[in-house]
TrEMBL record:
The keyword Kinase applies. Keywords: ATP-binding, Carbohydrate metabolism, Cytoplasm, Kinase, Magnesium, Metal-binding, Nucleotide-binding, Potassium, Transferase. It catalyses: D-ribose + ATP = D-ribose 5-phosphate + ADP + H(+). K(+) binds at D229, T231, M265, R268, G270. This is Ribokinase. GO terms for cellular component: cytoplasm.
Length: 287
């Protein structure tokens, strides 16, 4: 797998409730760690037993993030260090596990075609390219990947309908949440099943997910969990889903594994540093 994705420093603040406009809150606790949708998905894929190489950029202040990714099993030769500060996210989490996030993109949107092209030149036909919407370069990466015979998976967050529309004909697997799916349908004027994408997975939060393919659609129920923090749960789901497909699992089995991973993730506080590995999932669910 090749993951063109963001790398962030995540700052966590535990608060009694999510702040409203003009309100100042005292945090009950503070922590920081590795994050960004890209890094989260790379870690999830690696912990899901896939070989994943991350394509991204950091600033001069965050060499530890690359070391952390490497520690978690992610290949890191194609992470560039540039002068722009590393991306970061300030995350507030309330007592029920709901969150609010302010994101600074930083180095994540300073990727060059040379960085992306150098990485994908090492790819093989049949590999997956995974992307999100927290970096630049998706159009170039998708076009290059398609020409090399890679399968393109796109996690459409943060959501931007125009970004999806620009590469719609190069996407093999689209993952988005229920609200994003509704926004995309409204923006493009056609239902999900008419987008021309082989597989679309719409996550439904605590209700599970819906898989829409050329052969119809199927709803998968979520596994019950006592959620303490939903941050990174969707990224964990996507990383595990693509990793399972890359390892040759069929879509039914891949979605089931991804749902298990997501349900275990919401019982933990944090992002990339606490994503469960495959053995933890197997032990927890007795598989």
């Amino acid at each position: 797998m090749w993951n063109l994705g963001s790398i962030n420093i995540d700052n966590f603040y535990e608060v009694p409730h999510l702040p409203i406009a003009g309100e100042t809150l005292a945090a009950q606790s503070y922590g920081f760690g590795l994050g960004g949708k890209g890094a989260n998905m790379s870690v999830a894929a690696a912990r899901g037993a896939a070989r994943v190489s991350h394509i991204g950029a950091i600033g001069p202040d965050a060499g530890w993030t690359v070391e952390r990714l490497l520690e978690y099993g992610v290949d890191t030769p194609h992470i560039a260090q540039i002068e722009t500060p590393t991306g970061h996210a300030n995350i507030v989490v309330d007592g029920s596990g709901e969150n609010s996030i302010v994101l600074f993109q930083g180095a994540n949107v300073q990727l060059t075609e040379a960085i992306i092209g150098s990485a994908l030149s090492e790819a093989s036909t049949g590999d997956f390219l995974l992307m999100q919407n927290e970096t630049n370069g998706q159009e170039y990466a998708a076009t290059t990947a398609q020409s090399l015979g890679l399968k393109v998976a796109y996690a459409a967050a943060p959501f931007e309908a125009e970004a999806i529309a620009r590469i719609l004909d190069r996407i093999d697997l689209l993952v988005l949440n229920e609200v994003e799916a509704e926004q995309l349908v409204e923006a493009l004027g056609k239902p999900v099943e008419a987008l021309g994408i082989s597989d679309v997975v719409v996550t439904l939060g605590a209700k599970g997910c819906k898989w829409v393919s050329n052969t119809g659609e199927k709803v998968f129920d979520a596994y019950p969990a006592d959620a303490v923090d939903t941050t990174g749960a969707g990224d964990t789901f996507t990383g595990y889903l693509v990793a399972a497909l890359d390892r040759g699992m069929d879509m039914h089995a891949a979605i089931d594994l991804a749902l298990k991973a997501g349900s275990l993730m919401v019982t933990r506080r944090g992002t990339a540093d606490v994503i469960p590995d495959l053995k933890e999932i197997q032990d927890h669910f007795g598989i």
